[in-house]
Amino acid sequence: MTDLEIRQEPDQVPGKPIAAVIIATLATIAVSVVAVWMIGDCGGTDLRAGPSVRTWGGVPREIHHVEAHVLRGVETDAERARRQAILELSTWRWVDRDRRRVAVPVDVAIDLYLRQRAGGGP
Fold it and tell me: Under DSSP, is residue 16 helix (H, G, I), strand (E, B) or coil?
């Protein structure tokens, strides 16, 4: 058997492609920073401002006017049912006028029930 010498080639890193990637990355970062700065400048209000954020009828101004119209004007079936349930649980109304049965708000009903249980009468 003969001894063959295995030679290793010197490591060479191609400089031009690496430089191009670094330049492209820095350019992308710079463009992103400028874009964020412009968006922040054009918005006019700080979203972190909390309750003092200016609004159009309860919708933050940062939302486009078309979205604001949609957000203000649409009530889902679930929201409508919830609103109706809250109304029924919080108002006095006749259940059966002939039998003199009245529906009372939940908080009043709880107070009446606790008074009756304590022996205080109706």
Answer: helix
Of 60, 24, 18, nearest to 43 by C-alpha is 60
Give the whole-number percent of the chain exceeding pLDDT 70.
66
pLDDT of residue 7: 82
- Counting the structural domains of the chain, the total is 2
- Across the range 40-63, mean pLDDT stands at 55
pTM reported for the whole predicted model: 0.34
CA dihedral 84, 89, 90, 92 (to 10 degrees): 100
Q: Which domain holds residue 29?
A: 16-74
- SS3 for 55-114, per residue? EECCEECCCCHHHHHHHHHCCCHHHHHHHHHHHHHHCCEEEECCCCEEECCHHHHHHHHH
Per DSSP, 119 falls in state T
